[in-house]
Amino acid sequence: MQGGWRHRKAKISGGIFALDLRRVRFALKGSLQNAAVVGAGPNGLAGAITLAQAGIAVTVYEAESIAGGGARTIELTLPGFRHDFGSAVHPMAAGSPFFRRLPLAAHGLEWIHSPVAMAHPLDDGTAALLVRDLDEQCRLVGKDGNAWRRILEPFSRNWWALTKDILQPLSLPPRHPLLLARMGACGALPASTLARRAFQEAHTRALFAGMAAHSFLSLTQPFSSSFGIVLAAAAHAVGWPIPRGGSQAITDALIAHLQSLGGVVQISTPVERLEELGRVDVALCDTTPRQLLRLAGDRLHSVDRQRFSRFRPGPGVFKVDYALSEPIPWRAKDCALAATVHVGGGEMEIAVSESAVGDGRTSKHPFMIVTQPSLFDRSRAPLGRHTAWAYCHVPNGSTENMLPRMEAQMERFAPGFQECVLARRVFPPRDLEYMDRNLEGGDVSGGAVDGLQLFLRPGWRFYATSDPSLYLCSSSTPPGGGVHGMCGHNAARMALRHLRR
User: Fold this and answer.
1) Is the pLDDT assigned to residue 2 strictly greater than 80?
2) Taking the CB of residue 32, how many other CB atoms lie within 10 A of it?
3) Between 445 and which of 18, 65, 88, 314 could a Cys-Cys bridge form, CB atoms 3.0 to 4.6 Å apart?
């Protein structure tokens, strides 16, 4: 398809129709431009808000009955137990430059900070802790305090400057080149290398390795350190908060703000082909590259079809949601102070677990990320009961049943855990994809983050396609996974430049 689409008559019926005075005024002048966004995840909604702020009439189409994609909160186990389907703890949402500019608190979003941002239990019955206060953190890591401060303080102190560079495509000139160069010097190292060079204490090495493992990379791969550094810096700058009421609160606040700008969200409205949208000036797709191929059909140039079909998915996850009769009985009592707990032993054990996944195998002793939000938000479960979820990394599309290994890991650090389980809901990769089409093979990162794909997502065009009115705005574009909305915001800004031309 060449040129922009002009809106005449949409083929999709139903949903919400909303107008504000600005839209009516533009329509009367005959100058109204409109846009369609496919997918109401955080990136799709961020893109829609960015377009609506510029006076574009926006309609968002969501296939599921509940908007949010990975940021949904649903009763997955028993009535009254509200579980976050995807992400539960949100340092990157609290630290998002775009979300920071939105009145989300006015639309009901409230952040809860647990006393400890993250705990990492070890076999000696103690736990390494990550706290928000940098001075307290340096005290907690003992002999590694000076090294921790030397690495993390420049980034935590300059968080908002840092995010302006790391949350945009690297093709753009950096606004703070010295800060970005400093990040490159540390972050380009493999996480295991940085941990062993910088830190003397086994507890500190384990703490850093667990954060770096969020990358889904082997800890021996270049740039795996960068993920650990960013997450640790975020903890000291903005915390690792949870939203009161669950991750759905982020989605609901974004939708409420979009509607205040005149935007429309239609749920239970799957889009199988872009022709179903009618004729619009611009379309943003919060989808994977392969999904965009199916949506666009022959509208894309063969070069786009090749690069999207070659885009590599990342590893998958195996997730379990729990309804509990009581809090998780951690041996290390400090774990009860944290909304997030990393389960996986020391740095070497975590490295072995993540290397197995990188080699296409499952780990015998998987590194796990565990959340326990009901300790700090009583709206998540009936009185006296609790919710938790845990996931581990597996090869993309794995059919291996990881539940016995995961619960063995839980018993190792929380003896008696299984006696607390009232109900569980198991999500292998195929079931995660069934719940959210973007999670292809259980990939929650929007594609592998190794090699050139770390920087060129999904190629040198980033958000743009060969059709000047069609853009990709999912986590398969820069800056990648996480609930921060920057993929959608960046894509919409590029689309606006096209519309202005």
Assistant:
1) no
2) 17
3) 314
The DSSP bridge partners found for residue 181 are none
Q: Residue 7 and residue 12: Cα distance in Å, rounded?
A: 13
User: CA 239, 439, 74, 106 torsion: positive or negative?
Assistant: positive
Paired tokens of 398: 């794995």
Q: What's the token pair of residue 309? A: 């079909």
Q: Helices 486-500 and 42-53 meet at what angle, rounded to 10?
A: 30
pTM above 0.90, yes or no: yes
Is residue 370 within 8 Å of residue 389, measured between CB atoms? yes
**What is the reported pLDDT for 32?**
75
Helix (H), strand (E), coil (C) string for 48-78: HHHHHHCCCEEEEECCCCCCCCCCCEECCCC
Helix (H, G, I), strand (E, B) or coil at 439: coil
Q: Which residues contact 3 (CB under 8 A, 6 or more apart)?
A: 468, 469
Distance, in Å, from the CA atom of 339 to the CA atom of 343, rounded to the nearest integer, reads 13
Phi, psi (degrees; rounded to nearest 5) at 139? -70, -40
DSSP state of 477: S
Domains in the chain (CATH in brackets) are 21-71+246-311+447-500 (3.50.50.60), 132-241 (no CATH), 315-444 (3.90.660)
- Is a pLDDT exceeding 90 seen at residue 407? yes
CA separation for the pair 419, 400 (Å, rounded)? 24
Strand partners, 127: 121
Q: Which helix (H) or strand (E) holds 253?
A: helix 248-260
403: number of Cβ within 10 Å: 14
| Residue 396 in tokens | 């993309």
Q: Quick one: what percent of the chain has pLDDT higher than 70?
A: 94
Angle between helices 177-187 and 145-157 (to 10 degrees): 140
Residue-level pLDDT at 65 = 96
- Phi first, then psi: what are they for 115, rounded to 5°? -55, -35
Compute the Cα dihedral for 169, 170, 171, 176 and give only its sign: positive
Alpha-carbon span 279 to 5, nearest angstrom: 5
- The predicted-structure confidence for 44-80, as pLDDT tens digits, reads as follows 999 999 999 999 999 999 999 999 999 999 999 999 9
* Rounded Cα distance, 194 and 482, in Å: 23
Please check whether residue 166 is in contact with residue 183, taking contact to mean a CB–CB distance below 8 angstroms.
Answer: yes
236, exposed or middle or buried, with CB in 10 Å at 0-12, 13-18, 19+? Answer: buried
What pLDDT, on the 0 to 100 scale, is given for residue 88?
97
Give the span between the Cα atoms of 128 and 349, in whole angstroms. 15
Task: Provide the residue count of the chain.
Answer: 501
The 10s digit of each residue's pLDDT in 86-141 is 999 999 999 999 999 999 999 999 999 999 999 999 999 999 999 999 999 999 99
Confidence of residue 455 (pLDDT cuts 50, 70, 90): confident
Distance, first Cα to last Cα, the chain: 18
